[in-house]
Write a structure and sequence with these properties.
By secondary structure, this protein is mainly beta. It has helices at residues 2-29, 131-136, and strands at residues 36-48, 54-70, 73-83, 86-97, 102-110, 140-150, 156-165, 181-190, 193-202, 209-220, 223-234, 242-257, 260-272, 293-306, 309-322, 335-343.
């Protein structure tokens, strides 16, 4: 009887030992199904220094929701509840990891092209985006993309992604089309340097626009220095090629100033040549929707940051340089911008 009990105990112990690896694997693959909620608020005040006009705005009131359904499946939603008084649904996508390195993403999101345009309001360095990020290359679309991460030595990484998208604006998803928009990007990081190269082809109307971009970013301690260039070519000579460029430096350092524990100073030089958005006028021609200009921006930011809470108080001055014959609208010239950014 004793031998039978002993044999039973030994068999039970062996079964537990055999089951331990699978239990550990299940525990490893478990994910937290509770979605994460993030948000950003950007109230601001601006003044046109030449005309004296000013205005208050709630530039952004964004909420985003993201999470994982399994180790291979994640999702993301983002809505701006006040983009200067308008509600805009920005992003909604799902992503599947086909392999640990290869991922498929589908839905509505920013096209994989450019660098400054991928900075969200929560981590802007200046109150207003560069001409590249805000005017020439601010493109979201509905489509799908593949991304692949190459295995490289520890100090470097390479991400390549490419996708196809509807050529229509996001609000027109019922239109059947014969031609698509495409975009692709390679992002290489080594040490403190990040290099990005991209290609994009859009069809906002009947004239295709082909674009190339490149950027280099250097980060070290409190420093961030970046340069980006963008070229847009309009097919069939419909409009002259447009060029955009953006160079900036940002230096952040710890401080003790009331509630604030960090400060930073920034300087930027950016510009663009005459640019068309690719939409033809009533005569079937492309016209200049944004005239050539250069800009110098200087500013400073006080920051409170603790765990997930982040608050910025930012003050920028922008000096514009137009051609002598340009007609400058109110607010499109020299101005001061003061804003508060709260993110969580």
């Amino acid at each position: 009887m004793t031998s039978i009990r002993l044999r039973s105990l030994i068999l039970a112990a062996l079964s537990v030992l055999i089951a331990l690896p699978s239990l550990a694997e299940e525990e490893k693959n478990e994910v937290n199904l509770v979605p994460q909620l993030h948000g950003v608020l950007r109230p601001r005040w601006e003044m046109d220094t030449k005309g004296g006009e000013s205005r208050f705005q709630l530039r952004d009131a964004r909420l985003s929701l993201n999470g994982q359904l399994s180790p291979e499946i994640d999702y993301f939603f983002q809505t701006n509840f006040c983009d200067r008084g308008k509600i805009l649904f920005l992003d909604g996508w799902g992503r599947i990891a086909l392999t640990p390195s290869l991922k498929l993403q589908a839905g509505q999101f920013r096209l994989p092209f450019g660098t400054d345009c991928f900075r969200a309001p929560a981590n802007y360095i200046f109150a207003n985006r560069s001409f590249i990020g805000g005017t020439m290359n601010n493109v979201r679309g509905v489509g799908a993309k593949l991304s692949y991460t190459f295995a490289l030595p520890e100090s470097s990484s390479l991400l390549v992604e490419a996708g196809a998208f509807n050529p229509t604006v996001m609000s027109e998803q019922n239109v059947w089309v014969k031609k698509m928009a495409f975009a692709g990007k390679a992002l290489y990081s080594v040490g403190n340097v990040q290099l990005a190269f991209g290609a994009e082809t859009l069809l906002p109307d009947e004239i295709r626009i082909n674009s190339l971009s490149g950027s280099a970013t250097w980060r070290h301690r409190g420093w961030t220095v970046e340069g980006e260039y963008l070229n847009k070519h309009y097919t069939n000579g419909a409009y002259k090629s447009a060029h955009g460029y953006n160079f900036f430096a940002d230096y952040a350092f710890p401080v003790k100033a009331g509630m604030f524990n960090q400060a930073s100073v920034q300087a930027r030089f950016d510009g663009m040549t005459d640019y068309s958005n690719g939409i033809r006028d009533e005569y079937g021609k492309l016209t200049t929707t944004n005239p050539a200009r250069n800009r110098v921006t200087v500013g400073g930011t006080l920051t409170y940051t603790y765990k997930a809470v982040h608050c910025d108080l930012r003050l920028d001055y922008e000096k514009y340089f137009y051609h002598h014959d340009a007609v400058v609208a109110t607010g499109a010239g020299d101005k001061i911008c003061a804003e508060m950014v709260i993110r969580f």
